[in-house]
Amino acid sequence: MLNFPLWKKTLVGIVCLLSVLYAVPNFMPTGTFAGVPSWLPGKTVNLGLDLQGGAHLLFKVETEQVLKERMENVVAEMRVTLRQERLRYSGLGVRNNSAMVTLRDASQSDRFRELIREIDNRLLIDEVSEGSFALSLSEQDLKAEVDNAVAQSIEVIRRRIDEDGTKEPVIQRQGEDRILVQVPGAEDTEEVKRKVGKTAKMTFQMVDVRNSLSDAIAGRVPPGSVLLPSIEEDENGNPVQMYLVEKRVRVSGEHLTGASSSFDQANRPAVSFQFDAVGGRKFGKVTTENVGFPFAIVLDGKVISAPEIQSPIVGGSGIITGNFTVAETNELSLLLRAGALPAPLIILEERSVGPGLGQDSIDAGTVASVIGLIGVIIFMAASYGLFGLLANVALIFNISLIIAALSTLQATLTLPGIAGIVLTIGMAVDANVLIFERIREEFKSGQKIGTAIEAGYKRALTTIVDSNLTTLIAAILLFAFGAGPIKGFAVTLSIGILTSMFTAIMVTRFLVVTWYTKKKPKTLPI
Amino acid sequence: MRLLKLIPETPSFNFASKRVAAFVFSAFLIVASIGSFAVNGLNLGIDFLGGILIEAETNGPADVTSMRRQLGGLGLGDVSIQEFGDDNTVLIKVQRQEGSAEAQQAAVTLVKETLATQVAEYRRTELVGPTVGAELQEAALWAVLSAVGAILIYIWFRFEWQFGIGAVIALSHDVITTIGLFALLGLEFNLATVAAILTIAGYSINDTVVVYDRIRENMRKFKVMDFIELYNLSINQTLSRTVITSVTTLLALLALFVFGGEVIRGFSIALIWGVIIGTYSSIALAGPILTYMEPNRGTDEEEYPGSKKDDASA
User: Fold this and answer.
1) Residue B302 pLDDT > 80
2) Do A208 and A246 form a contact (C-beta atoms < 8 A)?
3) ipTM for the assembly
4) How far is A309 from chain B (nearest CA, A)?
5) Which domains does chain A possess?
6) Fewer C-beta neighbours within 10 Å, C or N terminus of chain A?
C-alpha cells in the first residue's frame, strides 16, 4: 500500500529546509553574513571570471633558459678554476644543456674531476673521449631546477600582482612548466600582463669606454663586452641609442632590498633604490674606483640610462633617472621590489572579461533562467494539473538545492554553468514526467489509485536511473577533459542531475503521498 | 484537470510503417552533413586554431568598415570584424600570428591601440597560442570519444548487444548531424560546441534508454507479439513522455537562446538542435533498428528471463 515512512519524510523535509537556508545568502546583499562561521549558511556562489570580470592567463616558464643559464654559470666557474689551477683546455662551452670541455693534457683528468666536484658535486661527468668531457645534471636535478624556477616564478608573480594581498588571485602551477594566473575583477588586463611579462632582471654594468662604439655597431664587438639597446624607443619602435657595455655584472638586482618611485633634483620622475649590505659594499667599491666613468643600469638586456659617476656612492642607495613618466616609475619600482623572474614567461593563453560583459552575462543568465523556469512551470501545470504543480514545487527545491550545493562546495559558477542550470530546469522534470505517465498507465489498466501511484514510482525508477546515469557519464567526462568555463557547465549539469533525481523522486513522492492520505481521491487528477 | 494534451490519451500512431522513410531521411541527413563538412569544413574557433578574439564596445554605433580598413592595414593577416548583438559592440577576430608567443601579444596590443579612440570598453579578450589550441583539440576529441565509449559500455552492460548497436547508431547520427549543422551554417565550432555535443550525446541516449526500457519490458510481457508491432506499441506508450520532456527542455533552451546573451548563442543553437534530433532519432532510428536484429525474448515457458541469460544465448 502507498506509504512513505516518517523517517523519509523527515529526511526530505530537512534536506529541503537546509537547501533553502544555504541558498538564501546568494540573494541577500553582500556582507550580510560576514563573520558567520564557515559551516553555517552564509557562503555564496563563487562566480567565475567570465561573470565577475577578470583576467585568466596561462604562462609557460621558459625553463630551457634556466637550464642554459645554469650551465653557463658552471662554464664561467670552470674557466676561472681551470686557469687558477693551470689546467690547459679548449672547446669550453654549453651545448644541449651540457658543459663541454677538452683538456690539453689528458693525464690531468683525475685532477679535473676533483675540481669539478668542488664546483658542484651534482654534476655528472661523462668522458666522451679521452680528455674530453661533457658535464650535465641528472634528470632528477634538472627536474629540481625546473621545479625551483617555477616555484620562484609563482612567488615573484604573487608579489607583483598582489603586493598588498587584497586581490585574491589564483596563481598555481599546471603541469611541468606552466603557471595559471587568475586575477578577478582586473580592470586592466594589459596592466597585469605588463607586470608579469617582464623578467625584470636589473644589473649594473660599466660602459666600455676603451673600445669604439661605432666599431661595435659595425659588427666588431670586443670580447668581454656586449652591445645593448636603450630601453627608450622612437615612434617606429627602434631604440634611440646603442651602448657598448662590459659583460661583467658589477652589482645585480638580487641585492636590491627596496625601490620606490620618487623625483630627482630637477623634479623628473625617478626610481630610488636601496641595496642590502653586500650590494651596498659592491656598489660603493665600483663607484669609488670609477669616478668620472659612465655605468649602465640594465633592465632585461636594455639600458635604462648610463649616467657618469659623479662621486662615490657608499650609502647603499641611489636613484635611477631616465625618460620616465610617473606611471612608469611606479611600475618599475614595483617590479624591482618584487624581484626578478628566474626565467621569461610566455603567454600561452589569455581569456579576460571586462566587468561590463560579466554583469551583462549575469543579468542575461538570470533572465534566461527565470523565463525558462516560468515556461516549464506553466507547461507542467497545464499538462499534469495538480501533479504538475507538485512537480513544480520539486523543481523549485531542485534549483534551491543546486544553488546550495554550489555555495557549499564553493564550486565556480560560469556562464556555461548558468546554461547548465537552465538545461537542468528543462530536463529535471523528466523524472516526474516518467513517473506521472506511468501512474496514468497503471491507473488506466484498472489499478486502484494508491496501487497505481505505488507502481508508477516503482516501475519508473529503473528508467530514471538508467537515463540519468548516461547523462551523468557525459557530464563527468566533460569535467575531466573540459577547460575553463566549460568545466563550470559540467559541474552544474552533474549537480543538477543528482539533485533532480532526489527532488523528482523523493520530494514529489512526499507531496503525492501526503495529498493521497489527506484526500483519499477516487479519480486520478492527471 | 489537464489543460493541455499534446498527445492523445492512448496514441496509436503507426510508426512502423514509416520506418523506411525515416531511415532514408536520416541517411540523407548524414550524407548532407558529411558533404557539407567536406565542402565547407568547420569554422573552427580560436580555442582550437589559436588566435585572438576581442569583443569591444564602441563609443556610439560602430563603424565596421572604417575599423576593418584600420585593422586591415596592420599586416596581421586575416582580421574579421562583425557586429555582435547590438550596433555598439563588435567582435574582432585576428588569425594566429606566426612566430613567437610575443607576436600574439604584440598583435593584441596593436589592435587595442589602433582602435583606442573608438572603443569605450574592451569587454573580452581571448588569446590562444598554437600549443594550447592543439591540446584543446586533442582534449575535445578524447572527451567525445570517451563519452560515447563510456555510454556504450553502460548500455551494453544494462541491455543486450542489439540495443547497444541501436544506441550507437542513433547517437552517432545525432553527433554527426550536429557537426553537419555547424558546417552548413558556418557557426563557430569551439569548446562550448564540444560541451554541447556531449550534452546532446547524453540527452539522445537518455531518450533512447527510455524507449529501450519500454521495449525490453514489453518483450518480457508479450512473448509472442510480432516484434514490429511490439516496437510500435512501445513507442506509442512512451510518446507522451518523449514529447513532454522535449517540450520542457526546449522551453528552457529557447529562453537561453533568446535571453541568454550573445556569448552562448551558438551553444544554445547546438543544444536546441540536439534535443530535436535526439528526440527524432530515439523514435525513428533507435527503435526501428531493433526490428532488423530482433533481441532474444526467451521462450513462452520462461517467465521473465534475465537479460544476462539472453545475452549468453544471443
Assistant:
1) no
2) yes
3) 0.87
4) 36
5) 6-50+358-519 (1.20.1640.10), 63-139 (3.30.70), 204-339 (3.30.1360.200)
6) N
